[in-house]
Amino acid sequence: MCGIVGYVGTKEASPVILDGLRHLEYRGYDSAGMTVLNGGQLSTRKRKGRIVDGLSKLLDETPLMGCLGVGHTRWATHGEPSDRNSHPHHDQSGRISIVHNGVLENFESLREKLAAQGHEFKSETDTEVLAHLIGACYEKQNGGSDGVHPLTRAVMTALREVIGTYGIAVVCSDFPGLMVGARRGSPLIVGVGGGNILLPAMRVPSWLTRDRSPT
Ligand code: GLU
Hints:
Elements: E1 3-8, H1 13-24, E2 31-38, E3 41-48, H2 55-61, E4 68-74, E5 89-90, E6 96-101, H3 107-116, H4 126-140, H5 150-160, E7 166-172, E8 180-184, E9 191-193, E10 196-200, H6 206-210
Helix pairs in contact: 3-4, 4-5
The chain binds glutamic acid.
C-alpha cells in the first residue's frame, strides 16, 4: 500500500502534491518523493522516512518549481526502505518518471529481459522495472496512426506485459502538460476543476471540489 498523487494545472505543483501526500501518508511511512516538470526538465526529490523529517525538509532546502508533477509515499514491498528505492523512479533515458502503488509479480523476468537489452537499474524495486519498460516501449514506437498519444500508447503497451497490481501516474519531459494514469487492483481517481487535474489514490482536496472557476 502506497499513496500516490499527480497534479497538472495552474498552481505550483509541489505544495499541492505535498499536501496530498501528507493526507495519504498513512498508506506508507517508509519514504516520500516527488518529481516536478519545469522547462522540459524533470527534477526529483526523494528521501527515506516520514515526510516531515525527509521530503518536506528536502523541499525547503531545494524547492521544486513547475505546474506538473507526481508524488509518492511508500510502503516498501520490493527493496528495503532507502533513498534509492524511494519513488518516483525513472526510465533508462531519464525522460520518464513514475509513481506506483501495487506489486508487479513478474518484475524479475522483465528486469532480466531489459538488462539483457542494456538497461541499468538504480534500485531493487519492481516499480523501476516498470519505468524502464514504459521507456523502452516509448523509444520503440514509430509514430502510430491510431490517434493515441505516444506516452499513453507506451504505457498501455508496457502494462500488457505486466502481471500484478498497479495504480500509476506517469510524466515525461517531452510533454509538459500531460500526465498519464492507469490502475488495476489499486485505487486511483481523477479530480478535475478550475483548470486543475489531480490524480490521487483516494482523496480529492476540498479546494478542487469547491472551486470550479478558472484560476
Ligand atoms: N512495489 C512498490 C515498492 O515496493 C510499491 C509498494 C506498494 O505499493 O506498496 O516500491
